[in-house]
Amino acid sequence: MIAVDVMGGDYAPQEAVQGALAAAQKGVPLILFGNQDKVMPLLAHYYPRWRSLPIELVHCADVIDMDEDPVRGILRKKDSSIVRALQAVQSGKAQAFVSAGNSGAVMAAATIVVGRVPGVIRPAIGSFLPTTTGSLFCLDLGANPDCKPEYLVQFAYMGYAYVRLIKHIAQPRVALLSNGHESYKGSMLVKNAFDLISKTDLEFVGNIEARDIFSGHADVVVTDGFTGNVLLKGIQGTAKAVMDWMKDEASRSLILKILLGLAYPLLRRVKNKVDYARTGGALLLGVNKPVVIAHGSSKSCAITQAIFFAQKTVDQKIMPTFNETLQVLLEKGKTTIKTVKLQPAMKQVQL
Amino acid sequence: MIAVDVMGGDYAPQEAVQGALAAAQKGVPLILFGNQDKVMPLLAHYYPRWRSLPIELVHCADVIDMDEDPVRGILRKKDSSIVRALQAVQSGKAQAFVSAGNSGAVMAAATIVVGRVPGVIRPAIGSFLPTTTGSLFCLDLGANPDCKPEYLVQFAYMGYAYVRLIKHIAQPRVALLSNGHESYKGSMLVKNAFDLISKTDLEFVGNIEARDIFSGHADVVVTDGFTGNVLLKGIQGTAKAVMDWMKDEASRSLILKILLGLAYPLLRRVKNKVDYARTGGALLLGVNKPVVIAHGSSKSCAITQAIFFAQKTVDQKIMPTFNETLQVLLEKGKTTIKTVKLQPAMKQVQL
């Protein structure tokens, strides 16, 4: 049973409801959390026989206003779809949670309701990004816009443990996203995180530039949630822009237009590679239960994929194994990290 | 006369020397700064009659070691190519400086040798990025990995003044790069900068996501140097990856391969759009003289383009006009900004 927040995301509840219906039609049992006055008519509209599907609907009265900070909203409004859905996961009624809502809000609520894995300071959002040779796991993609160096070290452990588990790589190579590959490059946050991660027994390959993440030189890329989010959306935006420019260039000549039309299956395959609608959400790592965060601009197809991903995570018992490994790693790493002396956050060369 | 640092960049001095030779052959008078024992043989190798070109060579003894922080190196080593070249610009012997060296080092040296425009806290690297409707100006692209909110406000003024001057837009729209378009999104730095920029009389259109920078909704995008650098290199990396994936997909079928071959002129035009080799460097804004920073991985062609760009900036008297406008804007903006109360750098909701 997957708990779905049908009120979260830019196109909620319409797209979330449609996405949930598609997943339920494929046999995934769901509990939807949202305002029944809005959700029920949509269910009936998109699939009149929706009551024949494995769908349960739980009414949640609270709505977090568009102009309020969702994280603060979560802490104040206890009858929101996010909080109620997480409570269902915590109680065991559902096994995983899917939301396209504000990722900061989901993280805050998950931390409170299902709790962090012992030793975890901050949970992080992680997802695989395509490379020219396969894929790499990048985190944090948005849960923590402000980070301390210790968080990044923990993200490194999370990425390491997750890639080991999912891709069966014995020693995943961990890199730190920076503004240059040299060890002296980076913000103070990155420089301090560099020193800390160097001291762990992880396979640390140093700084990596955003330009080189596609090259396959790393299996895990660690960054703060602000930069990770900019990187992810920058990749998506660029891929779309490149496609748009191609169409634009092609439109100037009939021959090019025909060529591009013929090459369309190829373009579509490339587009799918970077299309978040098909990757189906990212995992919130460091909390006790499976929480899948779909992109805020998710359309129904992305919601469906996120639900399938959550179901797969449950079926394969990913989280219990991952959380157990993470706890051991963090315990082991804690002592090493304490020995490193950090530089103050804004120390700079005086000019 | 353009002063060129031929020791800076990943492929220096070979590519820098070749790039300079190409520019000199087109009639741009140059003074090259570098180790003559290395540079002289290269000049003779690539262009035996180089003494017939408008090229002067100034020997600089100091070399900043690969493993030392270049910013600290600059402050200690006074006979480096960067410092000596900037001194030539300051004295009036040269009118602009071009370097593919470490951007932090160039900024530090420029701040010391040619000085900041009165009122400027930190100079910033700015460049135009392509959008689907034209281009936007983005800064900082790497000079300041750690920023305070006040720096970002100044970057907003710089971008505004530069775009007005270059693109003749009466009221350039200024946006702040963030992890969401909502006003409550962002790191503490971005949230504070948002409040500050809102108080100015700039045409502030709020937060912009990395995904939307290609959409043409803004003329100026402001960010810190770390994030800007990740964004820029992420765009370049993605564009390259998309091209690589297309070739890869095409290689699986003869028909697709032929199609892609026929569509090659189209692909090349798109590639050039995001290819920094052709944009020819970015301007360091906020210092008294024209300083052009080429990408660290610049090949000869990019160096040549950066020299042409520097020459154009000199010919069109861009910097004197820009600096005068900037000084007035900063003076006017200073009083507004002082009234805004900022939140502490790491304040977060306690979980």
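DSSP finds 13 helices and eleven strands in chain A.
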